């Protein structure tokens, strides 16, 4: 049973509040492999085995077979099909095959995209999860033995459906694991009220941007979308449904939701939980599959704890019990704002030190490394650069500042405001340095911007530091600003620049911004290259590796190769374990469906614009993601003096110097010497 920290043990243990532990699975050994679904499946296997007189040697895992579990949760509705709603719902459905999960949104285009293979967002690993939860999966089988290093003859360790059926009948392979098909349990819909009315749990994952005008404008959180959804829920939710804030909200928002519920349904009780999301763009699927923690805040009442149990039981399908942390609802709401503010504060802190480094000869990466080795400080979020962007940090700090202001805590508000001030200052400093190094004028010059998204490995361009720098650079009237990002489609970047800066700045309308799908074309003839994201593609090889000056490194270094997770301890592996095996086999045999479990992807309509127009583009983008830039080639085509302004400290100054390039990095003494 989950015990709320602020609730006395005696009260928790009272009859009213006791929740049957059997429905809230635990992970006794803390392993991710525990699954309530498969506990039930084990029983099913045992029964099947008994029925076959013990002759059945293949473990048969039907992920659809379990109808119960998860505290009676059979239907989850997630309102908001965005960066959070889509991936979160997909992972919940993937890990709970017997629960129907529907993502609803008022935007029909977004919903339509989620139903096709042209997903509205790019997240590594999302397609795999989606293809299984949304499209269902075929029966497949594999041997429960690690692949022998000497016999990597492609699919020797997996077998086709017919083979495994045969083997299970003749009983030859004791260690064969067969996994039965699963039917789709993830759906996307625009029928918001209908889906809300059917759900046991309603997740609210709508956008909560900064309020643009009126009281609190520029700081307070705009809860318009949240309010609209709350009203829908209040009218349509089924009695007893558990309502969950997934969106990042101001502290005490649960009160507003409760109030709305009271107005529309005065005679029914609903519990409102806070369950903030901590995923980061670019690593969303991994963050969701292996979260550091899942926070659930509730009211300190027996009904509140029961609601916690309900939601926790969904997570417990794949998250170890000790990582599910419960607290009061206000703490949970506030924790999210504080987590983001503290992470951003570290970045501003290290960036403030970078300015000192540039004027003293200290090196910011060396300083960050040395302080990060102190476990009390830790190494993460100490990478100095042109500052943080993204849809969350700025707005969440502003929300915290506004909260402090409304509470009359001016010093607190001022303290956190400073994190944002330093962030903006860091970008301005960078632009000033570019202009200064280029003799104080950009007139007639071409600048190439590498990286447009708010960080590497994502196509999310919200609050992009690159765009802020571009806006400032435009003031100095360069001849051209050429933009390239290996993760962003040029069409979308153009669209966004049009929306946020204006039509007139685009080359096609006589302006000076051009977006390229090829880095070399973008950089050709440039007077300076500006690196805005920490993309691996932009890195030079390290001096210790094989290169000689000017040598070309073509491939991005892949993250560590997955290892074979077999043998599994039990013959009923969890979806997480199967996923690990799939990843291992996919990387070993360079195939996307090594277990042959995918169903056909939904077909697009005849003449689908995206299929026709985008296929070639996707291939181009994929290639760009694989390749490391050939800096020798870029340097060769730069105007003299050749400049690179490295806003993320990803190129090696010595390598670049060997190519005749002057480099100015962040928090480093660059070509211009101390104090530039
Ligand atoms: N993006 C992230 O990485 C991230 C991470 C953690 C938390 N968050 C928080 O999660 C929340 C959602 O963020 P996001 O990035 O997914 O936003 P998003 O803009 O990508 O998606 C929000 C979706 O909600 C839909 N929506 C708005 N009002 C609606 C209504 N009345 N009915 C139905 N649908 C409606 C929108 O059409 C949109 O598709 C925010 O509070 C954000 O702060 C975001
Ligand atoms: O050492 C660092 C780390 C990050 N950044 C920058 O900080 C920004 C944010 O990066 P990151 O935190 O990786 O991405 P987000 O997707 O914005 O994720 C943050 O915001 C989400 C939305 O609330 C939270 O859920 C996540 O936990 C939190 O990390 C980016 O511009 C990065 O380039 C740095 O400059 N230096």
Automatic annotation (TrEMBL):
Composition skew (Basic and acidic residues), residue ranges: 561-570
Keyword Oxidoreductase: yes
Domain of life of the native organism: Eukaryota
The UDP-glucose/GDP-mannose dehydrogenase C-terminal domain, residue ranges: 448-555
Catalytic reactions of this protein: UDP-alpha-D-glucose + 2 NAD(+) + H2O = UDP-alpha-D-glucuronate + 2 NADH + 3 H(+)
Annotated signal peptide: none
Enzyme Commission no: 1.1.1.22
SUPFAM superfamilies for the chain: 6-phosphogluconate dehydrogenase C-terminal domain-like, NAD(P)-binding Rossmann-fold domains, UDP-glucose/GDP-mannose dehydrogenase C-terminal domain
Amino acids binding NAD(+): 105, 110, 208, 248, 395, 462
Protein family membership: Belongs to the UDP-glucose/GDP-mannose dehydrogenase family.
EC main group: oxidoreductase
Residues at the active site: 392
Low complexity bias locations: 154-163
Keyword Endoplasmic reticulum in record: no
Residue ranges of the region described as Disordered: 141-170, 541-570
Gene Ontology terms for molecular function: NAD binding; UDP-glucose 6-dehydrogenase activity
Organism: Phialocephala subalpina
Entry's Gene Ontology BP terms: glycosaminoglycan biosynthetic process; polysaccharide biosynthetic process; UDP-glucuronate biosynthetic process
UniProt keyword terms in alphabetical order: NAD, Oxidoreductase
Chain coiled-coil ranges: none
Pathway: Nucleotide-sugar biosynthesis; UDP-alpha-D-glucuronate biosynthesis; UDP-alpha-D-glucuronate from UDP-alpha-D-glucose: step 1/1
Protein name: UDP-glucose 6-dehydrogenase
